[in-house]
Every structure is written in structure tokens, then in C-alpha cells.
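Progress against Task 2.4 (sequence-to-structure conversion) is shown through the following example record, which the project officer requested during the mid-term review.
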Amino acid sequence: MTVPKPPLKILLCSPRGFCAGVVRAIDTVERALAQYGPPVYVRHEIVHNRYVVEGLKAKGAVFVEELDEVPDTDAPVIFSAHGVPKSVPQSAERRKLFAIDATCPLVTKVHREAEIHHRRGRDILLIGHAGHPEVIGTMGQLPEAAVTLVETVADAAALIPRDPSKLAYVTQTTLSIDDTAEIVACLKARFPSIVGPHKEDICYATTNRQEAVKRVAPQIDAMIVVGAPNSSNSQRLKEVAERAGCANAVLVQRAEDIDWSEFGNIRKLGISAGASAPEILVEEIIDAFAARYAVSVETVSTADESVFFPLPRRLRDPTPAQ
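C-alpha cells generated for the chain above:
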């Protein structure tokens, strides 16, 4: 006799998965491969997702961490969505490499803000996580010591600026909205004249995905966030779920990574995906649960997204490699 599967309701967070900046970055690599043929070199993972990176490798993309790993070549060299320090395009230009910048336009906006504050004589505080490629890229837009990294409220409370009247802050685009708000509140209380962004630096996609997770988290027994361990926005989604009331929130890259012992007798499961996780991995995970449970799926939507970013100019109006 067949044992009936236990019922499981899946609440599917929407929006989830790819954002406009990630779509643009992946399309940049694929268009370069189509126009110029392999190899196409990519500095750093184009986005933080193993499935995406392996798929592009199979098509002829070669991933490197630094430009000195790229041979002298006419092949395109693409900079990842996270942005790069100014020294990187300068080095590419010196070597006459055919460089294509796939930096997310919302990260570029933060770079420009930091440069404007610097020109106006302000010291810049960057709220973000040490070592993340986006933070390295933003700090690398300006001379050393022009930008101070602030990771926590404690950092903000301990900060001793050179001139408290000449301060500005920018933020990494993939942070937790709530964590960032606490840090900003501390900075504004200590330095009332500090200048912030005209428009929030945390990107629309990060905000929307966190809001959907907040809506779902109090209603479920467990939450799966599909994403890579080195994906900042995916890690923040897991933290947001925990903070919003879901004690059992896990980050997994794909179905084969699920530890089934963590789910036991759950009746309601939430699923979201970081901005660099493709929808096929979400479907794979739903299928894995459907093999073990009698699954019903309900989508919980908190925003509609219609943002689109055009490809880098060099691919819209291609010029021959130098």
C-alpha cells in the first residue's frame, strides 16, 4: 500500500531571483560570446551564483580574479556586476585590452555619489561588509583613506572623524534595510550635518525581496533562500526571515544541497531566491519537495518589477577590439 505524502503548502515569495542588474551582466557575457566568440574573459564571478558561472564557462567564458591572469589578447574582458576599483580599467587601458564594464548601474550610482562628495571636500563613510567585491570597488573609486568602512552600529558609535561637519555616507546596495537604518540613525544622531544619498542606495531589488520575505516569514515553519554563500543579498534574505519570525531559515544553492533532516514535519514552507539565483533552481527545489510531500503552491507578491538596464554601450554599438 502506498503511504500518502504529508501535505505541504509552499508560499513562494515574489519578487525573487534575478534583478535587472544581474540580467544585464549575464546578457553582457552571452552577447560578447555571440559577437566575438570564445574565449571571453570575466574578472571575478559575473554574479555570485555557481550555476550561472558554470553555465557561462561551458559556453566559453573564462573567469579570473585579477587582470594579470588575462593574457595579451583581443578577446573581450568583462568586469563583473559588483563593480571594480578605478585601478582595474586603468590597467586594462594600459594593456590595450578590450574591456567591457558590466557593473550594475545602481552600483555605478554609488560610485558617482562618492566621487561628488569627495570633490566637495567631504570624508565618506561606506556602510557595507569588508571584503565584498562591491565594497572593494566603491572604496577603490577614491584615494586611499578617503573612504571609511562602517560595518556595524558599534563602528558608527566609535567613529572619530577628522571633521564632523564634513561627512557623507553611501551604502553597499545589497544590505539589510533594517540593519542599515540602525547604522544611519546612529550616524545622524552623532553627526547631524552628515549628508546622505538623494535616493536610497540599497537597490530596489534588495528592498523588494526583503519585503516579500518579511511578509511570508511569520506564516511558515521553515524558509529556504536559494542563493550562494558568497551572495550578500541572499545572506541578508536569510537574516531577514529569521528576524521576521522564521526560526528555521536556510540558504541553499540547489536541491542537492538540502538537508532533509532540517525540515521534519513542516506544514508550511517559504521559498525565496537571491538576486543572482535563476528561477530554474527555485523550480528544482519545489520539485524536490513535491517528491516527498503533497505540495500546493501559493505566490505571495509585494511588488511588481519592470526595471530594465540596457547592455553596455560597447555591445549595443560594437567597436572592434583594439
